[in-house]
Amino acid sequence: MTSEGQDGSAPRRGRRTADAPAGRDALLRAATRCFADNGFEAASVRMIASRAGAAPNLVAVHFGNKGGLWLACVDLLTETFAPNIAALTAMANDAKTPLRERLRLAIGMTAGYYDRHPDLRGFVARASVEPPPRSDIVSERLLKPLYEAARPLIQQGIDAGIIPIGDPAIVFVILNLSLGQPDRVASALALLSPGHPVDETASRMGEAMAQLLLGRDGG
After folding, report:
1. Whether 27 contacts 66, CB under 8 Å
2. pLDDT at res. 208
3. Is the preceding omega at residue 133 within 30 degrees of 0, hence cis?
4. pLDDT for 22
5. CB distance 163 to 103 below 8 Å
6. Contact 109, 87 (CB under 8 A)
7. How far apart are the C-alpha atoms of 191 and 182, rounded to whole Å?
């Protein structure tokens, strides 16, 4: 049974209209995925609109053009990063929890975070190697704030002799490159050692990186 519109007519079906509440959000989600998979140049407005189930002209209505839509995706991902950044800052300032435990928690949190946000990790990875200004924007808006939040905790681990690598930037890059591609890691494991549970890839990678970087408790 279908409901009627306010004027008594049956509701129209099909593509989202400009005033549809979910239209803008649908375009943002679709664009993030398309930019992650294809890059800025190859991800056309028509491709994004088709994935969102929206008319292509709605990109201009909501964002002005494809560039404006890309920047809106960065804004969305900045908001998505915010809780992670806050958590890393809190871990660095937590004097009650042993440092090694805080480092393990941070590594596990990072692994789980990337596993839950495949569009984010794909967008950042793709945009980071694109020409300026997009690579610069991603660096300034996403990567550098995350690094600045993680750096104090990493430095504490280095100063305490827990982390055997002396440069916090290298530690940060190693962790994020290793943990930021659980889908590719799962594919590689499936080829090299069939039988690894795909849904456990992120957590197992987090545990492996913690052992490699931190050693065992008591060390």
Report:
1. no
2. 94
3. yes
4. 62
5. yes
6. yes
7. 14
Residues 7-52 have pLDDT tens digits of 443 333 445 444 454 689 999 999 999 999 999 999 999 999 999 9
Alpha carbon distance 77, 144 (integer Å): 13
Residue 22 CB: number of other CB atoms within 10 A?
12
Cβ-contact 134, 70 below 8 angstroms: yes
Q: Which amino acid is at 33?
A: R
Q: Do 191 and 183 meet the contact criterion of CB atoms below 8 Å apart? A: no
